[in-house]
Design goal:
alpha+beta, Arc Repressor Mutant, subunit A, Beta-Lactamase, 2 domains, 7 strands, 19% strand
Length: 253
């Protein structure tokens, strides 16, 4: 039986408000208070109090014409501040656009933020959409992604990271034995390219290369993802795209 939030040093009222915010975000504009209450499992009166509080603070808005609720405009500034803290600059976006044009795939820039390996920027298109949930802020399953392998291969505290987060099996192809994973990272360091084939999600493959600073230290990774058939036919093109992007982001770009 799980402990109540308060006994863990958590505020249940804050948790409820964040749950409401997440439900409105996933439902889209115009979701009603009754729908929010039903999805959250809250009483309608409690839901109205939470909605009104979030509106007052700018995190939600009331949409009179649709008679429902939507995300507030304060979230825009929070999103931009997160991108700034992750180092997502116009140069990063331009470099990813370049890789996107070459590879014909969705491309990602990831960085190490304290103890997390985080996606900092994504460039895609309707024809080649990003892989969900690999969006800005994603920081899970590093062992099963190509950009995660790049960063882990050059992370001095790798063993500590893996001891905390583990090698959870996501598909039949996920590497879950530490010895096998260390051998995989040896290949990444030797070749300068990481790849994963159906390790994160079935019918998906990804390649990634490191981004270096002036001292040749790895400060990020650029990755490209594609359906398995496209990857098999265009792997070299995907690698060319991420290498070009990493060069543009490096000290000699």
């Amino acid at each position: 039986m799980s402990q109540p939030a308060e006994s863990q040093g958590l505020l249940s009222s804050v948790q409820r408000a964040l749950h409401v915010l997440e439900v409105v975000a996933s439902a889209g504009d115009g979701v009603t208070a009754k729908a929010v209450a039903r999805r959250c499992g809250f009483k309608l009166s409690t839901t109205y109090h939470l909605l009104n509080t979030l509106i007052h603070e700018g995190y939600l808005v009331r949409l009179p014409n649709s008679r429902g609720y939507g995300l507030g405009y304060k979230l825009t500034s929070l999103n931009q501040r997160l991108r700034d803290q992750l180092g997502s600059t116009p140069l990063v976006s331009e470099a990813l656009q370049h890789a996107h044009r070459i590879s014909g795939t969705a491309v990602y820039y990831s960085v190490l933020r304290d103890a997390h390996l985080v996606v900092a920027e994504v460039v895609d298109s309707p024809e080649t959409p990003r892989v969900q949930p690999l969006d800005v802020g994603f920081h899970e399953a590093a062992h099963a992604t190509a950009f995660g392998k790049v960063l882990l291969a050059h992370l001095p505290a790798r063993r500590t990271y893996l001891a905390e987060f583990g090698l959870r099996r996501l598909t039949d192809s996920t590497i879950t034995r530490l010895e096998d994973f260390e051998a995989e990272l040896d290949r990444v360091r030797a070749t300068g390219v990481a790849q994963e084939v159906e390790e994160f999600r079935p019918d998906l493959a990804c390649v990634a290369v490191p981004v270096l600073d002036a001292s040749a230290s790895v400060v990020g990774a650029v990755a490209a993802s594609a359906p398995l058939d496209y990857f098999r036919a265009h792997r070299d093109l995907m690698i060319e795209g991420v290498r070009e992007s990493a060069r543009l982001l490096g000290p000699y770009g």
